[in-house]
Amino acid sequence: MPRKPLIGINADFRAAARTTPAFAYIAEGYYRSIINAGGVPVLVPPQVDEESAHTVLDAVEGFMFIGGADLDPRNDGFMLHPSVRPLDAGREKSDRMLMAEIAERRMPVFGIGTGMQLLNVQQGGNLFLHIKEDLPSAVPHHDVQDTNHRHTLDVVGDSLIGRVYGDGEIRVTSRHHMAIDEVAPGFRVTARCPDGVIEAIESEMIDWFAIGTQFHPESEAASALDIRIFEEFVDAVRERSGQLEGASDAGDLQLVA
Fold first, then answer.
1. Whole-angstrom distance between the N-terminal and C-terminal Cα of the chain?
2. Is residue 101 within a helix (H) or strand (E), and if so which, with residue range?
3. pLDDT at 249
4. Of all residues in the chain, what percent carry a pLDDT higher than 90?
5. What is d(CA 221, CA 202) in angstroms, rounded to the nearest whole number?
6. pLDDT, average across residues 132-141
7. Which of 31, 49, 129, 229 has the highest local Cβ count within 10 Å?
8. DSSP-derived secondary structure letter, 28
9. H or E element: which one contains 54?
10. What element of type H or E holds 25?
11. At 46, is the secondary structure helix, strand, or coil?
């Protein structure tokens, strides 16, 4: 039976209100998908300092960033658009800190929704702040009445996403009003909505497995194919862990006379 790698998953955060305490939380679909794919999810609440972030990443073998509210464009030198509903500031600071360290370590990473946008921004790309204004001919990518709103997807065949979905019509769950504009160096687009909106990116760097989906393969409306993205991710984490263990074992060998 394949070994189950530890996969860190960032948690969302909600500040205290009049009748409720502050709490960190995560939708079941995220951690359930990692479990079903053969990994062990490790839920990570927002971290307060770099030492804590380093300790967390020392303990896990891969990391998945979940969706949520919007990245604050002011953190990347842009003005705040009226449509933007920023993430909790503490969560965003923690997410950015974790992503920077993950990139430095070349740890396998999978970003979903806001997680993909963070991956792109951290690596030097940027975002459309409101699809309706920036891409007025785009189809709806969000339906406030239907959290499982779906649209079709065009995929690049020679990619992880292409390997997962193959040929034929593909429909995925979509709920976002921001999207990738300029793709970060070292990444390529591997799926788009037919209207041109970027829906998946993958690393082209040979030393880093990094993938992002704007759509939500963890949603309740996910298909049997969607889970395969998580399986590919967990397999990549397992493979890298095996490579690191092999390198460590080789380093421990000593010649004796």
1. 39
2. helix 89-105
3. 67
4. 75
5. 23
6. 81
7. 229
8. H
9. helix 50-59
10. strand 23-25
11. coil
Q: 3-class secondary structure for 118-187?
A: HHHHHCCCCEECCHHHHCCCCCCCCCCCCCCCEEECEECCCCHHHHHHCCCCCEEECCCCCEECCCCCCE
Residue where the block lists tokens 């073998």: 61
**What is the token pair recorded at 228?**
């395969």
Place of tokens 């009049």: 18
Neighbours of 150 (CB within 10 A): 19
pLDDT confidence of residue 198: 96
The pLDDT of residue 26: 97
Assess contact for 213 and 199: CB atoms under 8 A.
yes
Q: Rounded to two decimals, what is the model's pTM?
A: 0.93
Q: Report whether 41 contacts 230 (CB < 8 A).
A: no
- The single-letter code of the amino acid at 38 is G
Phi-psi region of 253 (alpha: psi -120 to 50; beta: other; left: phi over 0): beta
For the beta carbon of residue 82, count every other beta carbon within 10 angstroms. Answer: 8
Which residue type, as a one-letter code, is found at position 105? Answer: R
Please state the φ and ψ torsions of residue 10, each to the nearest 5 degrees.
Answer: -70, 150
pLDDT in tens, 36-68: 999 999 999 999 899 999 999 999 999 999 999
Q: What is the pLDDT confidence band of residue 257, given thresholds at 50, 70 and 90?
A: very low
Which CA distances in Å does 85 have to 21, 129, 165, 246? 21, 11, 32, 45
Instruction: Please compute the mean of the pLDDT values over residues 199-213 and round it to a whole number.
Output: 98
